[in-house]
Each structure stands twice: as C-alpha cells, then as structure tokens.
Amino acid sequence: MSPPTGYNSDTQMVAPVTHDDGIPMVTSSSPTAEHPPLTVDERVLPPNFYDDYLSDTAKRYLPSPIRKVIPLSRIPGILSVFAGLPAPETFPFQQLTMTVSHPDTANRHKSTTLSLEGDVLTDALQYSETGGIPRFVDWLCGLQERYHGRKPEGEGWTLSVGCGSQDVLSKAFTSLLDEGDSVLVEAPVYAGVIPIFALLKCHAAEVCTDASGILADDLEHVLQNWPKDKRRPKLLYTAPYGCNPTGASATLERRLKVLQLARKHNFLILEDDPYFYLYYGDTPRPPSYFQLEKEIAGPIGHVVRFDSFSKILSSGMRLGFVSGPTPIVNAINLVTSSSTLQPSSFSQAVAYSLLSHWGYDGFQQHVDHVAGVYRRKRDLFAAAMRRHLEGLAEWATPEAGMFVWFKLLLPPVPGSDEGDSEDVIVRRALKEKVLALPGTSFFTNGRTSAYVRASFSVLPEEQFDEAMRRLAAIVKDVREEAGRGTGSDLGVNVSRV
Amino acid sequence: MSSNISAPKLAIPASLDRDEQIVEAVSASPMRKEYRTQKPNDNILPSAYYDRYLSATAKQCLPSPFPKALSLSRTPGMLSMSSGLPAPETFPFRGLSVTVSRPDTANRHESSQLEFGGDLLEEALQGSNTGGLPKFVDWLYGLQERYHRRRHDAEEEWSLSVGCGVQDLLSKAFTCLLNEGDSVLVEVPVYPGVIPNFRLLQCHIAEVTTDAEGVVIEDLERVLRTWPKHISMPKFLYTVPYGCNPTGASATLERRLRVLELAREFNFLILEDDPYFYLYYGGSPRPPSYFQLEKETPGSVGHVMRFDSFSKILSSGEYESHFNPPPTRDALIAVLGLRLGFVSGPTPIVAAMNRITSSSTVQPPGLTQAVTYALLNHWGYDGFQQHVDHIASVYSRKRDLFISAMQRHLTGLAEWSIPEAGMFVWFKLLLPPARGSDEGDSEDLIVRRALKENVLALPGTSFFTNGRASAYVRASFSVLPEEHFDEAMRRLAAVVREVRLEGGKSIGYGSTRRVTSRNEPGQHLRLTHHSLFGLFSLIICFPLAYIMTSHYNLVSPLG
C-alpha cells in the first residue's frame, strides 16, 4: 500500500496542545494571536523530560571503558597498538553474493545478483556503531521520513538497529521500567511481551480493544480510575496494525484519542508495528502514532516506534529498529553495549545492499507485493471461514497482517460465560489434526477465553478449507454435547484435567 | 588431590591423537596421580544442584508460550494455523554464495565458492531454534568433542547454545546466575567488557591476582579462605585462560588443576571465556580447557561454563572502526561481523539462558549461522584445524616481530612476559612513582604524551575493577602493520625516557596528573571516567578537524 500521503491536520485537528511550564496540557482553544502555533522545534520535549521515565537500571549502565576510547584510534597517522581486534588477513571470507528477486509483482520471477563489494559497501562498513552501520541507519531514517514524515534533525529522535524488534523492545522495557512500575497494555496483547513484564515485575493494566483498536473510552476509564496505591503508567504498549493476535488495525479516530490521552496523562506510546507494511485495507491507511504526534499540535516525543524486517525481508535475519526520543534510544544503546554489542554487521550489510539496490521506490513495490500476497491469503481464508464457521464463530475481517481472531460460540464453562477455547483447541482440535492458538495465551492474567488466533501466513492455501472444516466439526461437537442437557457439567468434564 | 602440586607443563595438543598424548604425558609426569583419568568420570552434578546458582530472574523468566505450539505444529498431517511466522514466499532472497579461502597455509591463496539455497536458506530466512540452527549446533557439538573431549549424550548433562556474540551470552549467563548482592571472583587485570555487567547487576566483585601463568593460586585460596562472613560466597570465577585480554597470559595446567580443585571445594562455577583458545602458539603442547579437565579429573562434573567465539577466527566485526589505516575492500568483507558465539555448560543454566533469549534476541541471526555453517561444513573438522593452525602461525610471527621491537627499544624501560597465545602484550613501564602508585601511572603517559607522539596503547587502569592507578600498558600486535612495530616502540620508548628524566629531575610526576586523589574508596570508577572525558577533550582540541574530515583513503603520513 502506498505511504500515507500526509494527513490533513487542518481539517481534522483535535484539541491543540500548549506547553505550560514545560508540562504538556490539552486545551480546547485554538491558536490565537497571543498564542501562535508553536514550531516543531519548540514542540519537541526536552531531554530532561525523560529523566522520570528512564529506569534505575538504565541509569546504572556504564559505557564500556574501551568503547569510549575508540575514536582515538581513528586519528590519522597514529600508530595504534590499542585495538584488541583480530588481524583481518586471517579471516576466510572473501566475497559474498546473493540472488534476490525483483521487487515488483510483475517482474517478481526475475532475479538480480548482488555482490557485497564496491565503494558503497566499503563506505558503509567503515564505521560500525552500537546502533547500526551509519549508512544503513541513514537509509532507515530516509524510510521514516517517507512513511512517517519524520526527520531526525530538529525533532529530538534517534534511530537504532537491533537484533530483531523483540530485542529492541526488550531493551526499551529494561531502559524504562523498574520493579513496581506500571504499564498499559492492550488486551489481548502480543504474547511475546508478557514474560518481559513479568520479569521486570511490573504492574500491567489491561485496556480493552476491538476491531478498531484500543477502546479510547476504556483507556480513559482506566486512567481516571487509576488505583492510588499503584504508580501512574509510564507507557502504553500497542501494536496498531494487524495486531497480533486480533488482526485489528487502529482507526485514525482511535489513534488521535489515544495520543491525546498520552499527552494529557504523560505516558509514552510504544508503537510496535511489525505489520505496518502488511496493510491491505481498501481505504488509505491511517498514519502511525509516530507521524501523528508531529502532525497534531502538541508536544513531540511521546512515541517510541518499533519497526521490523521480519515480515518483509526475512524473519531469520533478526533485524529491527527503534525510532524514538534520543535519551531513550541512548539508554537502549547502552544496554546493547553490554550485551549484543551491535547487530550483526553481516545481516546489516546484506539488508543494506538489497535495500540500497532497490531504492525507496523498489522497496515500495516490494511491500506492495507482500501486502498483495497477504491480502489474497486473507480473502481465501475469510471465505473458508464463512463456508464453515458461520453461526459457530464470530470474527472481524482483518485489514493488515496475518491473523484472524475469532470467538467460538461455545457453551459456558465455570469462569467464562462465553466458554473456553483452550480445551477445544488443545485436546479436541489436536486430535483432529488442526492447530490454532487459544485466546488465553494473549491475556496477561491468562484468563479463560472463547477466542482463537488463526494465522493464514504459512498454511498452504489449498488446506484453508479443510482446516476450517475440521475446526467447525469440533465446535459443532462441543455445542451438541452441551445441548444434550449435560449443561454446565460439560464445563467440568472438559475443563483442564 | 594433594595440594603441593609441582608439575612441569603437561599438555595435550588439539591436533594430535589426544588419547595417545595424555597417556604419554601422564606417564612422564609426577602429576600422574592427579591427572590420569582416561575414562571420563561420570560424576555428573544433578539438575537440582543448580538451584542454588540460578538467579531469581532465571527462575522467573517464563518460557515463551510459542515453542510448545511450534513443536505440536510439526505433527505429521497437522493443519497448523498457530505459527505467527510470515509467508516465506514473500522473502526476496533466493540464493546466497560466499567465496572463502582454503583453510591451509599452503593453499591459502586459492578459494572456493559455496552456494546455498534450498532447505538451509529457507531455514536461515525463517525462524529457527532459540539456541541456533540445528545443523550448526550439531556441528559445534562435534567441535567440542574434538577439542575438549566432551560428548553430548544422555549421560553428559551439558548443552550448547549459540548467541549473538560471546558478550551477549556472557551477559545472559550473568543475568541467569546473579542476584543483587551476589559475589563473583574475577581475575585481575580483567577483560573490562564484563565490568559494566557486574555493576549493573549490583554484585560484589572480589579480585584475584594473576601473573604470566594465570590465576595466582595462593591468592585465590587466600581470598576464599578469608571470605568475609557478611558477604555471600562467590557463585563463580570469571577467567580468560588463553592469551588473556589484557595480560596475554595463558594459564598453565598446574594452575588450572588447582583452580578446578578449589571450584569443587568451594562450589563455585568457572566461567571460562576462551576467545583466544584457537590462537595458542606456545612452544609446548597446549593445556586442556577447564571444560575438558573437569571431565578428566576425579571429582564432580558440571562446574564449568565455556564460552567460545568465532570473532577471532572467522570474522570479528566488533569494532571495524578501529582499523587505522583502514582495511582494504577484501578485508572489509572478511571482517563483516558475524556476531556469533556459543556457550557449553550445565543444561539447567543453558536452558535458563535460552528462556532469556526467547524474550529478547529470540535467536541468533539465521543468515550468519547458515553462512558460518556452510563454511565449516565445507572445510570439515580437519579443514578447520588447518585454518586455526594457520591463524595461530600468523599471530606467532607477529608476536615474534613485536617482541623483538620491544627488546630493541624498551629494554630497561619496561618489563614484560612473552605471550604464548592471543594478540596482547602486557608490560610494566618502569616509571617514577606517582600518587596512588609507587610504580607510577601509565595513564597520563599514554593518554596525553604518547597520543601527542602519535602512538596509542591502552593504559592498565582500564583493566582493574576499581580503576586503580597502574604502571602497566596493554599493547595489541594484531592490526598495526608489521612494518610499523619498530617505530611504534621507538616513539613509546622516547616518551618513557622523557617521563623518567622529569621524574629524576623531581618535577613531581604527580603534578602532571589531572586527577590527584585516587585513594578514596568508591571514587575510583568515577575518576577513571573523568580521565576518559579529559581524554575526549584532547581529541576535541587536537585532531578533531582531521577526524571529522578524514577520508580513510588518504595515505597516512607514516604509511
């Protein structure tokens, strides 16, 4: 899908926001002669704004004593016996070539061979830093400008590459959260972050979502009724496009409301957006939070954005990147300097030589193609669902990503009036050789759920129909058993043994 | 074991038939009683033993909910919609090929091209196991069997896991082992990359002295036997037993056996960080690793966690920017950072590390694993042996040249031991006393004066946990072109002479120091950093313009 063409903030502007002693505030008034609209520069939150957000852990990190001295060895003419680097002539790799497809759908069958050599690469690898190869980072900053209208200059943000976006996310949580801190998470939530919150001993407050994203009313309710004995939430974790597991993409209206609340209550928005480029909805895509915070009057610097190449280049390559307020990204880099040191420059060089070969237009063609593939799969999968699950389940059709989240219409069980999909999936469906993930995995408290997450990315398309047929047969069985008057006993019989 | 071991160097060359070597060495040695186990002992520590070592974090870290579903999805005939993996047909990569040199010295100039696609590429591009690509991991198990005689089977409760470089694995191991307030033993001087990790985890660090033969046993024993009651006993010893960074020292067999004995007596683990293992070029056969020794000496097995790295033998990529003059284009390809390392150790600890991985890095990058595996599998274990033999000989030659340059210029001005592995020489400058150190302080000399003379080494203070003043200097002879060795030593010698002269003229060497008080407890680290900041101001006033505008294609004024 094409990049957002610039959201017209004049006509849809929500309440403008002004500073008051550095504290961002939502007001209902429009800019006036005495209060002209602030420039982007003036709206950027100052670095010390983040002092209260950074965790004690982040503050304890020390830069590696050696790493700090590196620039000295770049002094021309210096005879350095300083670097603990191995002798490059002993290494066996001489050349790397790769065959890659053309980016566009029409010429997809054609291939190009790229060689990891040449001046571009020589330049690119001259320096390699904690946050990624500078040339690659520059290319990614250009990508953020193209897709989110954000430039690193004068906007107070920095980009850093990590070993996959889960790596960067985990480092961001480490940099932001102390034991006892609170976070807002959309529920259901990407299950991969639940162990991290548990590990950091945080209080995770769930915010309900539906097919249009976070329920702004529920978010407001949670914030207004925040328990006195808990710390105010530092951040909201959300996956706004093709959310894992719900498949939901947040609408513009919801995004604006969430951003407004973030500014009012001073929490950060951690925008985990691996499915951004897998948007295939019919209408133009809503802008990212990262874009909106710049386009909507008010302070800039509440959004930390996480991008991933896992869904569009290769999941095994493990490259992701974070774009966010510089003090937070610096803290993430410090965590890196004591752990992974830097993402593999090999992976970066492979990705960079492909991306710089394609250019931004080629990249656009590629992601259009990828979104087209998922759209076709979605269509086929949704058709199979309609054929078999009509009347047995409820769902919303996703407009991005690879997941359908559907509620099985099951008899009630103890603890859930809506029934429990876990037993259906784990015991029965497994026996019938069909596997999906039960909804319970996606709640921070592991509560009973009638929902199921199905992914249509890797199952061969010709098996969509059979998979849905098998699932439907099981749901029918369970419903029939309940209908035979065993009533709630059914729940007891089928509950986890 | 008796405590008065006085054995000559006893060692096993990795390249030779090791059974034969051991028998020979043991029969010729007064150590025979202590070190003769031919049948690996089977006194494996049970899983429950590690409960006392695992940190609260390791115990809390929940496994990711996905792997279970993933394993179910491999059931034959299963129609799985459970995997969140992307559609592989959308990935743009179709094939990869690497050109690599022959492993042996004689045919080094020849190269072969390895192409891979199909299953290996698919596995590389899509997600794989937390601990590494299965084929790659199997190859590495074979490597550990060959070099450390540790077999991976049901009886041996150890596992291997690949990570995003050794530092990544070390950091995960520390996280899995250390609670706030726990204690660790570190050899000093120590590889400084681990110090921020210990500070971060708020541990108590106990230093153990080392010399040219490794950890000084009397000191380790003293530290352990006089351990303060109010501090918890150390959970592990962190040591770099071959070509130690910074000292260049390789621990002798005798020292290793005594350290192992103490580890068993005091129940601490040995974290054997061994990136220079394959860079051993000593005159006598190499001593076995701790990982091997614990299996081959009587006593319990399961105290050793071994960390191996490819950074020194296949590709580094850690700090490419260090190269000055810059590497050629070919060399750049060579140093593309793979960032791959692997840990071998007790299964409960490795499993805890994998749980941390599943919430952070997820897995080491697939492409780099596949490329590495393609190369290693192509060479085979014998080819790998030829390759590391070649590398060791390159470092051996560099060492010889560097040491002779030192002898020419620094005799009488410095003291050193000759390294038998790795890339570092650690030498003590013979300086006039400075405040806080009767032996003088190399930091000012290196940071201010040597820099002005265009020669750079690392002052010893960086390698002490408390950043104390030190007369030592670490020099690395790996990347400076050999033809500059002499000039570098000449410049350094001139600086030392100058300082000694000033000291002789009693111009209070201490007065040239920016940092005057180094003795206040708790101040050391901060002061070190102040010094580093001072150092940065130097860069700013002195060569900033040049750095900013420099193109590495410029011919260095000295080259």
Walk me through this protein's architecture.
The complex is a heterodimer of chains A (497) and B (559). By secondary structure, chain A is of the alpha/beta class. Chain A folds into two domains: 65-362, Aspartate Aminotransferase, domain 2, CATH 3.40.640; 365-483, Aspartate Aminotransferase, domain 1 (Alpha-Beta Complex), CATH 3.90.1150.10. Chain A is 37% helix and 18% strand. In chain A, helix 5 runs parallel beside helix 12 and helix 12 (345-389) packs across helix 14. By secondary structure, chain B is an alpha/beta fold. Chain B folds into two domains: 133-386, Aspartate Aminotransferase, domain 2 (3-Layer(aba) Sandwich), CATH 3.40.640.10; 395-552, Aspartate Aminotransferase, domain 1, CATH 3.90.1150.10. Helix content of chain B is 38%, strand content 14%. Chain B starts with 17 loop residues before the first helix and ends in a 10-residue tail after the last helix. Chains A and B meet through strand 3, strand 4, helix 4, helix 6 and helix 7 of A and helix 3, strand 1, strand 2, helix 4 and helix 6 of B.
Which range best describes the helical content of chain A: under 10%, 10-25%, 25-40%, 40-55%, 55-70% or over 70%?
A: 25-40%
> Mean pLDDT of chain A, as a whole number?
85
Number of strands of chain B: 16
Strand content of chain A: 15-25%
Tally of DSSP β-strands of chain A: 18
Q: What characteristic shape of chain B results from the CA principal axes?
A: globular
Rg calculated over all Cα atoms of chain A: 25 Å
- Please, what is the CATH homologous superfamily of the largest domain in chain B? Type I PLP-dependent aspartate aminotransferase-like (Major domain)
Radius of gyration of chain B: 25 Å
Structural class of chain A: alpha/beta
Low-confidence region ranges of chain A: 1-29, 485-497
Classify the helix fraction of chain B into a percent range: 25-40%
Q: Please give the order of strands in the largest beta sheet of chain B.
A: 4-11-10-9-8-5-6-7
If interface size is counted as residues with C-beta under 8 Å from the partner's C-beta, which chains form the largest one? A-B, 119 and 145 residues
Count of discrete alpha- or pi-helical segments spanning 4 or more residues of chain B: 17
Specify the oligomeric state. Answer: heterodimer
What can be said about the biggest beta sheet of chain B? 8 strands, mixed
Give the low-pLDDT segments of chain B: 1-35, 318-325, 506-559
CATH class of the largest domain in chain B: Alpha Beta
The level 1 CATH classification of the largest domain in chain A is Alpha Beta
Transmembrane segments (chain B): 532-549
Family (chain B): Belongs to the class-I pyridoxal-phosphate-dependent aminotransferase family.
GO molecular function, one term (chain B): pyridoxal phosphate binding
Domain Aminotransferase class I/classII large (chain B): 150-314, 335-492
